[in-house]
Amino acid sequence: MSLATLDPAAADAPPRSAWFSAAIGAALEAQHGRSFLWSAPTLSLGIGTYFALGQEPGTLLLISLAAAGAVLFWLGRVTGLLLLAGLVLWGFALAGFQSWRSATPLLAFTTGEVAVTGRAVSVDRSSRTRLVMILAPEQIGGIAPERLPKRLRLTLPESAGATPPGALVTFKARLAPLPSPVAPGAFDYGRSLWLDGIGGTGRVTSQAIEILDNPRTMMPLESWLSAIRAAMGARIHAALAEPYASFAEALITGERSSIPPEINKSLLISGLYHILSISGLHMWLAAGSVFWAVRAVLALAPGLALRFPIRKWAAAAALLMGLFYMLLAQGGTATARSFLMVAIVFFAVIVDRPALSMRNLALAAVVILVLDPQAAIEASFQMSFLAVLGLVAFYEAWARWRADRGAEEGATPHWSWRLARWAAAAFIASLVTSLIAGFSSSLPAAYHFGRISPYGVLANGLAIPVVGVLVMPFALLAVLLMPFGLEELPLAVMGKGLELVIAISNGVAALPGANEVIARPPLTAMVVMVSGMVLLCLLAGPVRLAGLAVMALGALLMLSAPPPPDLLIEATGANVALRDAAGHLVPAQPRRARFAVEKWLQANGEEVSLAEAAKRAGWTCSHGRCAARVRGRAVVYLAGGEGKPLNCKGMDVLIADFPLRGACRSVTLRIDRFDLWRHGAHAIDLSGPGPLVTTARGAQGRRPWVVVPQPRQLTEPAVGSKSAP
Questions:
Q1: What is 479-523 written as a DSSP string?
Q2: How far from 606 is each of 367, 471, 517, CA to CA, in Å?
Q3: What is the DSSP letter of 469?
Q4: Of 252, 313, 258, 255, whose CA–CA distance to 283 is shortest?
């Protein structure tokens, strides 16, 4: 006899399988109509898969995937899962076609001083005394015309002269291939340059650039904007003292090169560095201020306010302000993305749709990813998208909770109590916003930059209200009053606000433990954690709590990450670092390859300079020979000893910054200048029975942006172009 027959209540209860099926059905029903919200994550999945490949897919495969995605998208009218699967395929194909559009021949060797002639595409300031020129070369000494890169990225001193965009120029320069990652799996800056059509880098060596021809076509808008930026910068510096003038200029015109390094460092440590980048915060404050100001002014005329849609007029004015701000700030990628998101929100106001919603965020993200697929793997898009995603999800949940709770009825409190309650609510909202946005954006920030801001919530909670009340509104007012010469008073108020922001930043940066750097988390763990956060924000109903479990899984993967390599070798052999028993990196050379070694230290979670790290125990160096024992193996690093007799006895690993040729063949592992030239930076793991070697170019795979090195005397660089589909 079963227990159910003994217990009538148990007999009437539905079987567990039926309850489980009902729960699954209810969870799926709650997701009805939310398929479009997943469009950006699924597109990003396809884009990320393309960039993670070790070999370039063929054009026929890209066309086939795009066609399959279109079929699935059509069938997705029946079920959203097919639609999302189609978007994954489209994301993959979009990234592949962007790669094809960007394809350019690659400079594959370092040149001596050569004559370069070409058209200046853009000239931007990189520091107080140096500029960066993007050049479309027409002639390079020793390189055939059909092998010329589409564009070169060149650095030059400001003293070389101002070059108007579009001008035909000639000069002497030393050219180099695109940079390879400083370590296997590190950030691939060369890929980012290649996707912008840049096939080589270099520096101008001429004392002055000769302009052969003026721009082919006049660019009145760009010339007008350049003149406005220069005039605004002069007005700002005339009205404010340093460093507030440079800070104000960065927020108004986007020019950040003159900001003192100590201000940059303070803002970075405190978690306020995002204030310097004209992105979502600034665009919202500028366009939002115009929206509310225009609407308030129009509302003063009752006849106008009652008869016409002044809210839509204000939204149109805010759109125009956002467009002008984007152009004035030189239209950087992050600024353009922010304007697009703002534009979609205010366009929703114009067409009587909800302004701030998950659907609008998804639409903005999809448009960005379609226009610029590589944004999916860049820190700026990931941080801004996740921050806004977290905020919208929280405030939508808060609004639903308030609606379910119902409005509280009671006597109207005194105006002073209402004012105090409003101020407290504004401060709490600022803290909550900072907490959510800070946590959401901290995941990609930890992976890309290896830095967290423990007091970022406090800093942003104190500084953002100042920026929103004293800085950006008065910056906007100053810009509007500049044509009349009346900008001094609003700039003075803005300067006081910036003074307060800097004081907050310095105070927070001085707190114990404020300057925290962490070792770079594993990519797999970070993808799992971000996926969990997306599930938490986009799923509806109790099932969204599954996102917390996925995030916990990501944290476990982070804790169980494989051990880091024991040796790191710079791409030219200029320096080698070992990992000591405490996990710290110890460079062999105190001055060479500073950029690469400091990137190693940052990825290892160490905030120390190259010289400080080189003082640690580990290497014994004498006359260009450095020796160490790592995991019981004898490691020798030779610097500048080419042609000298070598004593190879007792070596397990030999590293040389010159060609070893046939020397020391008995050594288990030899890495010389030729190996580094072919394969880039090396990482060596000595924890197993034999050395395990990984290389930067091996991690990059066979992709069109990966430089295949060639001897300097050859004049034909490797080509990273692909056939047209």
A1: HHHGGGT--HHHHHHHHHHHHHHHHHHHHHHTSTT-SEE-BPPPH
A2: 38, 35, 6
A3: I
A4: 252
Tell me which residue of 150, 130, 131 sits closest to 140, measured CA to CA: 150
Tokens of 254: 């986007």
pLDDT at 3: 38
pTM, two decimal places: 0.83
What whole-number distance in Å separates Cα of residue 188 and Cα of residue 704?
Answer: 13
Angstrom CA distances, 267 to 240, 449, 511, 642, stand at 20, 15, 13, 46
* Distance (Å) of CA 409 to CA 138, 401, 423: 75, 17, 21
* Residue 368 · residue 340 · CB < 8 Å: yes
| Residue 6 confidence (pLDDT) above 60 | no
**CA dist., res. 519 & res. 606, Å (int):** 8
Alpha helix positions (H), 372-522: 379-405, 415-449, 456-466, 472-481, 488-509
Helix ranges (DSSP H) in 53-142 = 59-75, 80-102
Backbone angles phi and psi of 630, in degrees to 5: -125, 120
First to last CA, the chain: 72
DSSP H or E stretch at residue 119: strand 113-125
DSSP 586-646: EES-SSTTHHHHHHHHHHBT----HHHHHTSTT-EEETTEEEEEETTEEEEEE-S-TTS--
Number of other residues whose CB lies within 10 A of the CB of residue 14? 10
Output the six-digit token pair for 354: 């909800």
Tabulate helix, strand, coil % of the chain (nearest 5): 55, 15, 30
Identify the CA nearest to 212 among candidates 120, 112, 133: 120
Q: Which amino acid would we find at residue 580?
A: D
pLDDT one-digit tens code per residue, 423-433: 777 677 767 77
Residue 184 · residue 90 · CB < 8 Å: no
User: Do residues 587 and 637 lie in contact, with contact meaning Cβ atoms separated by under 8 Å?
Assistant: no
φ, ψ for residue 174 (rounded to 5)? -110, 125
Mean pLDDT of 483-495: 91
Distance CA 121, CA 178 (A): 18
Residue from 460, 463, 462, 470 nearest 497 by CA: 470
**Lookup: tokens for 480:** 């509007």
Average of per-residue pLDDT values in the chain: 84
C-alpha–C-alpha distance, residues 91 and 42, integer Å: 8
CB 219 within 8 A of CB 227: no
Helices (H), 183-309: 189-195, 220-239, 244-253, 261-270, 280-299, 302-307
Listed in sequence order, the residues at least 6 apart from 254 whose beta carbon sits closer than 8 Å to its beta carbon are 229, 278, 328, 329, 330, 332, 335
Looking up tokens 């400083």 gives: 182
Task: List, for residues 548-579, the tens digit of each pLDDT value.
Answer: 999 999 989 988 878 899 999 999 999 999 99
Helices (H), 560-593: none
Using CA atoms, how far residue 723 sits from 59, 104, 151, 191, in Å, is 8, 11, 19, 19
CB-based contact 533:386 (threshold 8 Å): yes
The pair of structure tokens assigned to 135 is 């050049």
- Enter the DSSP assignment of 240: S
Are the beta carbons of 126 and 177 closer than 8 angstroms?
A: no
**Contacts within 8 Å (CB) and 24+ apart, 621-625:** 621/588
Residue 700 neighbours by CB distance under 10 Å: 21
* Residues ≥6 apart with Cβ < 8 Å to 428: none
CB proximity list for 711: less than 8 A, separation 6 or greater:
109
pLDDT of 305 > 90? The answer is no
